[in-house]
Give the backbone structure.
Amino acid sequence: MAAPGEALPAQQDLLLAAAFVCDAQYNRNIPFETSPQAVRLYYLYNHWTMQAATYFFVFVNLSLAVFEDPAVYPLPFLATSLVEVLCLLVFFSRLLHFAKVTPRNIFWKDAKNICLMMAILVTLTDLIIHGALKICNITSVRYSRIMRPIFLVNFTESRQMRRAFRSIRNTLPEITYVFLLFMFSVLMFSLMALKLFGDRNLQTVEGSPYFTNYLEIVFDLYVLVTTANSPDVMMPAFDFSWWYSLFFITYVIINTYIFMSVFLAVVYNNYRKHLKNEIRKLAYMKRHKMVEAFNILKVKEGSEFVVKESQWKQVVKLVAPEISTSHRELLLRISDDEQKGYVDKKSFVRLADLLNIQVITMKIRSHPLERWLPHVYNSASSRFLRSMVRHKRFVWIYDVIILINAIFIALDEENPLISYAEWAFLSLYIIEILLKLYTYEPRTFFAKNQFWNWFDTLIIIAALVATILNAAFKSTSKYNGQQVLDIVFILRVLRLIRIVDSIQRFRVIMNTLINIVPTMLTFGGLALVVYYMFAIIGMEVFQGKIQFFAAGSTDPHALECGNLALKDSTFARAKYCKNNFNDIASSFIVLMELTVVNQWHVLASGFARVTHQAAKLYFIAFHIVVVIMIVNIFIAFILEAFFVEYSLEKSEVETAIEKKIHELGVGVQEEELLDGKLIDNMETTENNLEGNGIKTSRGLVFKIASKRYRTVDALLQRMFEAEIPSEDEGLPFDEILNLSPADFYPKSPTFDSAA
Amino acid sequence: MAAPGEALPAQQDLLLAAAFVCDAQYNRNIPFETSPQAVRLYYLYNHWTMQAATYFFVFVNLSLAVFEDPAVYPLPFLATSLVEVLCLLVFFSRLLHFAKVTPRNIFWKDAKNICLMMAILVTLTDLIIHGALKICNITSVRYSRIMRPIFLVNFTESRQMRRAFRSIRNTLPEITYVFLLFMFSVLMFSLMALKLFGDRNLQTVEGSPYFTNYLEIVFDLYVLVTTANSPDVMMPAFDFSWWYSLFFITYVIINTYIFMSVFLAVVYNNYRKHLKNEIRKLAYMKRHKMVEAFNILKVKEGSEFVVKESQWKQVVKLVAPEISTSHRELLLRISDDEQKGYVDKKSFVRLADLLNIQVITMKIRSHPLERWLPHVYNSASSRFLRSMVRHKRFVWIYDVIILINAIFIALDEENPLISYAEWAFLSLYIIEILLKLYTYEPRTFFAKNQFWNWFDTLIIIAALVATILNAAFKSTSKYNGQQVLDIVFILRVLRLIRIVDSIQRFRVIMNTLINIVPTMLTFGGLALVVYYMFAIIGMEVFQGKIQFFAAGSTDPHALECGNLALKDSTFARAKYCKNNFNDIASSFIVLMELTVVNQWHVLASGFARVTHQAAKLYFIAFHIVVVIMIVNIFIAFILEAFFVEYSLEKSEVETAIEKKIHELGVGVQEEELLDGKLIDNMETTENNLEGNGIKTSRGLVFKIASKRYRTVDALLQRMFEAEIPSEDEGLPFDEILNLSPADFYPKSPTFDSAA
C-alpha cells in the first residue's frame, strides 16, 4: 500500500476519493482541489495530536484567569502575558494551517475564521495597551479576557458546541416574544400588588415596609417566579388575610408553572427542529460526497457502474487503516452481498455508515495460563474454581459483602476493629478481581466496552494505593494526611456503586445515563463559556467588595464580610461571606449557586448593597441566560436522549451488518459478554466458523456495540438518515449548505422529485 | 320529528342508530339492548342538568371539610353529617340510574362502580360510628373523609381525570426503578458526606453540629435535590475549604439536574404513550359504533350499501337538534359530495367527526340601527364614524390610552386629580365599546368565540359597577369598603391585558394558552384530589400544634407560634406561624407552598419539632407524589400541548369541510372577523351566495373555528385518527377494550392487514 506522500499520479484520484470518504466519515469541510501535498497537510491538520494540542492551548488560555489578578494562585503579569502571547501564536498558526487546506473562498466566507482572527488581534492589542499602562502604573480593565471562550467555540473541533450556540441563537426570536409576554405578566401583577398591599402599612419579617416601591415589587415578584423567596414574600399579606394568598398562588401558577413550562416547550421544540435540520444537512452532505467519490472510482461493469473489489479494499485500507483484515472482509461481504467481485453504487454510498459502526473484532483467545500451564489450569480443582466464579451466586455473595461493607463504612472509624475490617474488605475485592482474571481471558475482561470491569479495577487499585499511603502517613509522622483520607473515603463509598450493576433494571437506566455523558460534555462546554464570561464581568465589578474571614478571625467587621454596608443584611446573617467574586474559583461557585437558583435574591441583594441597586441586573441577566436558556436546553437534551433511547429500533444499516454477522454465525450478544458466557459460546462457535467462506483466523468473533452509540448525535443522525430515500443523492453541494429548517419541512417530498 | 318517547316500533332502529351516533359523538358507554324507555333513561342520564347536579353534590361533599371540625366556618356536627348523608343518597341514586342504563355484566365488571359503592358504604358506616361515639363523648378520627375525592374521580363525567390517574398508575413501575436508583445515589452521597464532614467539628449557621447524624444528612441532601436549602447546606464545608464545594456541585448536577430531568422524561414518555393508546382505543370504538349504526340504517343502492338522504337528515336532527338547517345542509353536501341522494359508508362513518367540528353558522345581519333608523345610520357622518372605528389607528389610539392609564394606576391614589382621571378612563373605555357596538352588528360582536370582546366588556362593566359602589361607600358612611376597593384595583389592572391582543405574536401565544385552559382543569381536579387527601391527613396529625397570633397579640408565646418546641427554630424566626393545618384553607395554602418547594424543609422541620421527627415523612411523601409525579405530568402536558399546536396541520376531516365551504364561497377567515372586515366582505359574498345550490337564507356565512379546538384531547384524537386508515373498521368491540399500549406499537401494521 502506498503512503499518501508516495502517491503515483494514477493514484491521485484514489487519494482524492479516500480523502472524500474520510471526509464524509467525519463530516468535515474538505479541500476541493487536492494535490498529494494538500492531502498530507489535510491529514496533518486532522491528526489527533494537532487537535489535542489546540485544545490544550485553549484550556491554558482559559485557565490564565486562575493566575491573573485577582488570582487564586498569583503569578506576575509578565508570566501570564507571555503565556497568553504563546497561546495566541499557536491559535494563529492553527488558523493558518486551516487556511492552507481550505479553498480561499470557503475560508473567507466562514464567519468563525474571521471571528478567530478578530479575537487574536483584539487580545493582542489589549494586552499591549494594558502592559504599557501597567508600566506607567495606571490600572486598566483587561476587556479582552471576556473573548477567550471564543477560541474554545470557534476552532473546527468544537462543532457540537457551535451547533448548540446556533440552536440558542435560532431560538432567540421565538423565546423573546414569550419572554416579553411573561415580563408583561410580571409587571401587571406587580402593579396589582402595589395597589393591593402598598397602603396597608404591612411589614416584612425584617421590619422594612412591604410592597411600597414598584421596582422592588417587580424584583420580588421576579424572584418569586424562580420560587426562591416563596413563601416569605407572601407571609405579611397572608398574615393580614388568608384571601391574599390567592393572589400569590395565582401568580405562581401562571408565571412559574405555566410560563416556565412554555419556555421549556419553546426551547425544546426549537432545539429539536434545528438539530434535525443540521443533522439532515450533514447526512445530505455525506451522501453527496460519497457519490462524488464513487464517480471517481467507478468502472463500467455490464450495464451499471461499479467499484472493483480491489479498489474498494484499497480505499478502505487507506481510510481506516486501524480496522482488522477480518473486519474489512466482513464489510466487503456486506457491501458485495452476492460476491460478484465488485461493489455497486448503493452499497458504496453506505460505506461511510458501515465504517462508523463500532464492530468489535474479538479473537477468542485461550487463557494465557492455559497456554503456559495447561495441566494446572485444566485440572479438576481449577475447573471447579472457574465454574464457581462464573456462577450467579458468586455475584450474589459479593453483593452481600458490599452491603456489609456499607454498614462498616457508616460505623465509627476510630474503632480499631473496623479499621482492620477495611483491610479485609479490600483484600476480598482484590481476590475477586484476581479470581475473575483467572477465569476470564484478561484481554476480554478489559475490553474497551467493559465499563464496569474497568470501573471496579480502577477503584480498587486506587483505594489500595490510597489506603496504603494513608497508613504510611499515619505511622511515620504527625502529618495528618487529610486529603488522602478524603480520597480514601470517597473511593470506599464509590465501590458500593457496583451493586447497581447486579440489577438488570438499574443497569439499563445506568447505561442510558452513561451513553449521554459524551454529549453532556457539550453542555459542559456551553456552560463553561457562559460562566467564564459572567465570571470575568463579575470579578471586574464585585472583586474585593466582600471579604471572607475564617472562623476565629479577630477582624471587627468579620460578621459583615468586611463591608459595613452589609450590616444587618440577610446576606451577612446567613454567613454568605465566602460567596464572592474575589477569584475565578469563587466566582464559578457563586455562579453555580445562582444556577441552582435558591437564595439567589439574597446574593443579588447582598452584592447590590455593596455596589449599586443596578447590580441586580447582572443577576437577573444571569438567570435569564443560564436558567431560562441553558438549563432548559440541557433538560430538553436529556428528554430527547431518553425518548430516542425509548423509541429507536436499531437502524437499517446496523441491522444489515448484524444480519450478516448472524448469517455467518460469528456474532455474540453483548449480554453474553457481560454475563461471562463468552467462553462457553466459544466452543460452539469455533466449530461453525470453519465451514464458512470468510478467511478469518480461527476463533474470531464479531460483536456490534449494539445499543452503545457513542453520542446521541450519531444516533439522531442514523435516525434521520433512515428518512432519506437511499436513491436520493441530495441537492447540489452549495444548496445543501444554505438549507434552512423551512426548506426541509413543508417541501420534504420535493427532494424525491428533484433527485 | 318524533320525540324519543313517541317513537314508533319502526323507528326503534333509527333511535338505536341515533343513540349510537350520539354515543360515538361523545364516546360513552352505551346500552347494547335498547328499548325506547331505556333510550329515554339513557338520554336523561346524560342530560346536562343531571351531570351538573352530580358535580354540584360532589363539590358540596368535598366542601364539607370547610365546615367540619377543624373548620374555617364551624357548623354543628349534625348539620354537616345530614348534608353528607344527602350527598351519599344522591350518589347512590346516580349509580342506580347508571346501573339501569348499562347491561348488567358491563356494570359489574367496571371497577369504578364497585369503588363508588364501597366508598358510599364505608362513609356511611364511619359516619354512624363517629356519631355514636360523639354521643358518648368519645372523639374519633373520621377516616372516611379521605375517601371523598373518590366521588369526584369515579363518576362517569370525570373521564379525563381517570385517564390522568391511569396514566400515573401505568407510569409507577418505571418511575419506581428510577426513584430507587436516585435514592441509592442520595444514600451514597450521604455516606460520603458523613465520612468527609462528620469528624470536622463544623457548625451550621445556627450553631448545631454539621453533618454528624446519617439520617439528618440524608434529609438535608434530599432537601438539596429540591434546591430548597442551597447554598446554606454547603456553606460550612465551603467556608472550611473551597474544594468541598465540588462535592455539592457534583451532587446537584447528578441528582437535581440529571435525575429530575430523567423523572420528567419517564413521566412524559409514559404520559404520551398511554394517552396515545387511550385515544386510539376511543377512535376505534367510535368507528366501530358508527359502522354498527350504518349497518342498521343501510339500504342497497346499486352494488353498494348506502344511507338515504332523508334518513341521514333524520338521524342528524335527532342527534344534534341544535345545529341550524343550513349547517346540516352543508354537512350533507360534504357527506354526499356528488349529490346522489344518499350517503355511502365511508362518508357516514365520518359523520361523528363532522358533527364534532365547530362550524359557526353566522347570518350576516344588517345592523339593527340600520333597520330602525336607516337614514341616520347611513348618513355621511355616521359612515365616517364607522370607518374611523374600523381603522387601525382607532386600536392604536386606545393602546396609547391604556398605556397612559397604566401610568396613572401606578401613581398615588390620594391625589384627587388622579381619582378623577379614573372616571375619565372608564368613560373612554365605555365609549369605545359603544362605538364598536354602533359599528359592528351586536350579535357578531358578541359571538361565542369572540373571547376578547367578551373579556373587555365584562371587565369594563364590572369595573364600572365596582367603582360606583366604592364611591357610594366612600361618600355615605365611614365604612371602608376595602374588599370592593381591592376588586376595583384588580379590575383596573386587568383592563391593561387588552394591549396584548393588539400584537399579533402575543395573540398567538395567548390563544394557545387559552386553548390549554380546559384541559388544565383536569390537572386542577387531579391536584384537588391529592391535596384534599393530604390536607385531611395533615389536619388529623398537625391540627392545633401551631397557632397563629395576629400582630400586636399579647400572648407570651406569640413569637413561638404558641408552641415552646419552636423556640429558636427557623420556622418561628421566619414568622411562618400562619402556615399550619388548623383548617382546610390553611392546609391547602401550606400544601401549595410545599408544591412550590422553596423553604419546604423549614416547614417540615417546624412540624417535626412540634410532633415527631417521623412527621418529615409526610412532607417527603408529599414531595414525591406532587412534585415528582403531578407537577411533571403537568409540565409534560403543557409541553405536549405546545408541540401539538406547533406541529399539527389541520386534520383531514376539517380540511374537507373547509374545502367545501371555500368551494361554496361562504367562508370567512377568523382573522377577518377579528379585524372587523366582516362587514366589508359581506357585500361581496352576498352576491356570490345567490348563485350557488344550497338553499340558505341570504347573507349566511360559515366559519370554522379553525385553530380553536376545545380541548387538547380533541386535537390529539384527530391527530391519531388520521393515522388509522379509513377503511379499517378496527377489531371486534371486546378486543378494543382490552388493548394495551404494547398492542399498538410494534404491531401497528397488522391492523391494516387484519382489516
Residues 31-155 of chain B form one domain. The beta strands of chain B are 299-301, 304-308, 342-344, 359-363, 700-704. The longest helix of chain B spans residues 245-297.
